Amino acid sequence: MSHTPQSPARHLRRLLELLAAGAPAEELGTVAAEARRNGATAEDLAEVEQATEAALRVHSTLRQHRRREAELTALFDTAGDLAALRDLDAVLRSIVRRARMLLGTDTAYLTLPDEEAGDTFMRVTDGSVSELFQNLRLQLGEGLGGLVAQTARPYATPDYRTDDRFLHTGSIDAGVLDEGLVAILGVPLLLGSGSGGQVIGALFAADRTPRTFAPDEVALLCSLADHAAIAIDTAKAMADARIALAELAEANAVIGEHSAAIQRAEESHDRLTDLVLRGGDVADVADAVAGLLKGDVAVHDGSGRPLTAVGAHGGAASGDAGGAPGGGEDGAGAAEAADLVAAAKRSRAAARAVFRDGRWVCAMLAGQELLGCLVLYGRPDLDGPDQRLFERSSVVTSLLLLLRRSVAETENRVRGDLITDLLTAPDRDPAGLVARGRRLGFDLDRPHILLAARTGGEARDRLADAAVQYLFGGGGVSAEHEGAVVLLLPPGGAGPGKAARLAAGQLGQLVGSPVTVAGAGPAAGPRAIADAHTEGVRCLRALRVLGRAGQGASVAELGFLGVLLGDHHDVDGFVTTALGPLLEYDAQRGTQLVRTLRAYFDCGGSLTRAKEDLHVHVNTVVQRLDRVQALLGPDWNTPEQALELQLALRLHLLSGA
């Protein structure tokens, strides 16, 4: 079958149409073959073949332009991502994804150094399916990636597994094999240029089949790596900037707080100083400190007794010297005082406030002498500025206490002269003594408890000063008289015996040696106060004879010895103290407990003889004595108690009751 030769122009037009349609190179090659089949002359065929070669060159140029355009577009997009950088991981994932797309590889990945571990790790992967490969770590110089990081140069291999240019390790080869990679191209992430550039990572593109990477592909991956390096450096700079801004803001806040603390401290100091200068009392200072620190405040003396308190804590009524001597303390109060003294001593040793048992304690000092302590409740979170304010408040309170003590010592010396004159000659001019006391702010016509205190050795010289400290803030007065220290103080709800015991304990702590204290009164008026002193001295002598040095008691508490020693010989009071419960029981029920007890003692403790004397059954005697025990306590038949009871029974009988 013959073909009519076609004009070369037809074939040339066909080549142009294919180029315009973007046909692949294979279709361009079919035009010459078609001309040959159609019987083109040799001259025409040569012209068509030359035109085909030119079309192929144009096709290649267009393909390169399109590829370059895609690369430039990708680079511009990457630059845009960097300009709007918000999330470093998102930018790095975008770069790796574009590297894989532009190079047409099966996978792409980026590694960064781990400064703490001293190796590199996979930061971002795209197209990877192997968990082993994704968790791979490379030491410097190991594998293709290690060589890129070490030399800061790009490396490519058509078949990594057979390429002996790289240091192969079991872990790296296992990861590459598990991912199925063959051809790998790696380029460094460089900051700076030339020999001074710093490698901060590497970017890779890899295929699962053998492949030779062209120079323009290497250049493209290097451009993307440069963008990745800029992204990482920019993110680091932004992170450093954020940290710096945060540190600057924190420093600014600290400066602001410090400035506010200084201003507050100045205002607080001025307020406290103004209080002192205006003649404010310890209670006023405590109230001001409580307001400044938003807590409850108490002031205690050197023995732990409360002087004043503001709020629900402190053991004293707000603004009142609730720790006045003679007020008495139970066991819990004594333990509390001991705890406060121990905390104050720790504060003195540390030269700062200490926190103990949910409260802040700061020692108030005069040199090394412990005047007392300032206590703050309700502020366990006391910070530095407030703690310094609390400690400064203790200094102001110390100055105020020193001033008050100095005034009190002066007043006590003047009042002490009055007490000495009263005890020496109470009947010489009683009205004058009373008037003189009122001029000194001391009313002798009001009831007072009198305490007589004595100690031995070197402590004797310290007892007078200790008495002034003990009475400080309590409204009492003291004086030395006839080898003892005499204290006059308001009753305060406690009898002379309790007041004597409390004074013995606290005076002993102040002088560091046992102090014996006798109590008498209450007594009002010069004559009665002088008589109370005489009774107190006798009681003091009895305590020493009885071996009770370092203790406190009153005449009434010495039992029959008190009756013998007392000026008024209070027989009825002694009988009532010893037999009162039995007398009251008999009077109310018509029983004979007192008569039964007298018969029991008269018969030498024999139940049989007692029942014959009483003309009752022995069981009745036993029942009555059980009732006696219930009323008087289990120790009623001890020798000491029995002696008291027998003496009281005899006095009761002699009184004709």
Give structural attributes:
6-stranded antiparallel sheet, alpha+beta, 15% strand, single chain, elongated, 657 residues
Largest beta-sheet characterization: 6 strands, antiparallel
> What does the average pLDDT come to?
78
From the N-terminal CA to the C-terminal CA, the straight-line distance is 171 Å
| Strand residues, percent | 15-25%
Strands of the widest sheet, in order across it, are 3-2-1-6-5-4
Ranges where pLDDT stays below 50 over 5 or more residues in a row are: 314-324
- What is the number of helical segments per DSSP (H or I, 4+ residues)? 21
Q: What is the structural class? A: alpha+beta
* Cα Rg: 54 Å
Q: Which bin fits the share of residues in helices? A: 55-70%
> Per the principal axes of the C-alpha atoms, what is the gross shape?
elongated
Q: What is the strand tally? A: 16
Q: Could you characterize the architecture of this molecule?
A:
With 657 residues, this protein is an alpha+beta fold. Helix content is 57%, strand content 15%. The chain contains 21 helices and 16 strands. The strands form 3 sheets. The protein has a 6-stranded antiparallel β-sheet with strand order 3-2-1-6-5-4, sandwiched between helices. The chain has a 5-stranded antiparallel β-sheet with strand order 8-7-11-10-9. Strands 13-14-12-15-16 form a 5-stranded mixed β-sheet. Strand 9 and strand 10 form a beta hairpin. The radius of gyration is 54 Å and the shape is elongated.
